[in-house]
Amino acid sequence: MTTPPVARQIPHTITQLGRTRHDEYAWMKDDNWQEVLRDPTLLRPDIADHLRAENAYTQSVLSGTEDLQAMLVAEMKGRMQADDTYPPTPHGPYSYQTSYTAGAQYPVYKRYLTATPTAEEVLLDVNEAARGHEYYAVAAALHSPDHSLFAHAEDTQGSEIYRIHIRRLAGGAVPLPPVENCSGAFVFSPDSAFVFWVWRDSHGRPARVYRRRIGEEHDTLVYEEADPGFFVGVETTRSGGWIIITSGNHDTSESWLIPGHDPQASPRCASPRETGLIYGLYHQGADFIILTNADGAYDFKLMTTPDTAPARANWRDLVAHEPGRYITECMVWSGHLAWRERRDANTRIVIRSTDGTTEALEPDEAAYDLTLVGGYEYDTTELRYIYQSPTTPRAWHARDMASGAETVLKQQEVPSGHDPAQYRCWRLMARAADGEQVPVTVLGRHDTPIDGAAPLLLYGYGAYGHAIDPVFSTRTLSLVDRGWFYAIAHVRGGSEKGWNWFLGGRGRNKPNTFSDFIACAETLVAEGFGAKGRIVADGRSAGGMVMGAIANMRPDLFAGIVAVVPFVDELNTMSDASLPLTPPEWPEWGNPLEDVAAYDLIASYAAYEQVAPRAYPAILAMGGLTDPRVTYWEPAKWVARLRAHNRAPRPIMLRTNMEAGHRGATGRFDSLKEAALIHAFALWAIETAPARQD
């Protein structure tokens, strides 16, 4: 198929808050979309035919890269361990472990008695569970505290509607009645008698917590959230002292408590929600440690309160707020507390004992990542963490918080070979339009000239306070080893420089995210890491929103743009309260149903609304048919409108995964095909780009 599909245009006018907009491709949204999430075969035939035609066109345009894609998959696969095992995690008499057998797509969950490690017991072979399914994902796999039960939550459509399977491990792993319509979140009660799970409503929102006695089919409603903008979750404390129900949106939270020794008790509110107040509870001894932004602590601090008096009035500072030091998470044990903090796009881990002494773990590299690793034990002095950088493979460490002794539990191996000394990582600062300094992480080979000749792939996200950490990626090496530079733009909207960095790219400040990305691209060009018209931009989900914006704002900078499950129909989506994420995301973008200023701001940058006659670079948009987060019609509508307005000969392409959702393919090797397609498109985009006009 050498000519692109021409989507029919059906006039459709929307009047809202005195504003009028036109959406000639609104027909691509199936009125039956909620049912399609559960059963993709129900998609309206004309829409299905259009998406397949788009897939055929994309395949035709990139057909010359098929051998390259196969080569890239082989390279990426060669950097992965065919059989891989992760460090076992102790819990009581057992050690629990995840591993991959040679050539397997999915992991195997198993355990063994720590005293007899050769006698392994398979708890779940995901490869067997996935057999016969085009899509298969496990959201959580947990054993009960008494080690007698095992459960996992599975999704077989990509719609993030999960079924929980529970088994008794004695007597031949007897299955129990499954739990349906779960968000994927569940926990066992500390006494192992119940499972608490989160129910999704018809709009896909986690809205209720139910309790089920093990072995029964009846569910008891424990908590229901009335605010459609709040999502609920459930967890247990490491101490086993409490079951905690959480509810919140992006800037306000609330917790409800159930005593671990009395799981049938009614939950009581720890401290009532206050708009703008975020808090999380961690149990230690007779106290709760609280991670919160209370009292104007925008980069968060740690407080403490008796577990018998968790209300806000009783909170007392434990680790004071320090601007520029963003505390992202914490973990507690019976005698220690550890937290992860972020400064200027790098992280460190701080350990604090109950006597108040502290110790910080902070490597000496330009860009790196430290991640706390969870565990089951409460009465232990062992802390686990992962260290990695763009040049350095992951290493799992165990540190004795009392003695300081440290052990490397596992070092990631690259079977095809990897010498960190052949690579170099830079941390640059790009000057934004308003003078802010935006961090940029760059990876390249030592022998790649920094003279503007090398192609550049620039990745960005910038939303929800989610930071893009500088981690090790074996997939990225396929570009870097071909003489590319790979860069991450740590734009506002993320939290790389603290919570204010997030707020600086949120709501009315959202345009900063897009101008930051452009500033990063221009700085990289000025420093010799790329050249105008020889950059490929890449973003996923809310990062796809950035791709849509910069395609309209500065198409001249880029040879190609990759937008994976891109949020590009922002105004229509934020005006549709029936969609799963719309009410919870009004604090993030604004509510265009009620706020004229929010409507006008979103309309000013929304990718779909701002498409106009101009010369666009080559674009590859990728969607998922059963994606409940960024619905399939967003990239489909965007591509149709782009193509109708494009004034350049460069192709605008759409690839929809008809068997997957937001996360794409789930198998560890199947997912390589999508990564190889993106890399092949990037290489093709540079090779076919118009000559530089410098």
TrEMBL record:
InterPro entries per the UniProt record, alphabetical: AB_hydrolase_fold (IPR029058), Pept_S9A_N (IPR023302), Peptidase_S9_cat (IPR001375), Peptidase_S9A (IPR002470), Serine_Peptidase_S9A (IPR051543)
Matches recorded under SUPFAM superfamilies: alpha/beta-Hydrolases (SSF53474), Peptidase/esterase 'gauge' domain (SSF50993)
Keyword Transmembrane attributed: no
Name listed for the protein in its UniProt record: S9 family peptidase
Alphabetized Gene3D superfamilies for the sequence: alpha/beta hydrolase, Prolyl oligopeptidase, N-terminal domain
The keyword Protease appears for this protein: yes
Residue ranges of every copy of the Peptidase S9A N-terminal domain listed in the record: 5-412
Record family assignment: Belongs to the peptidase S9A family.
All copies of domain Peptidase S9 prolyl oligopeptidase catalytic, residue ranges: 472-685
Organism: Komagataeibacter melomenusus
Keywords: Hydrolase, Protease, Serine protease
Pfam short name (any one): Peptidase_S9_N
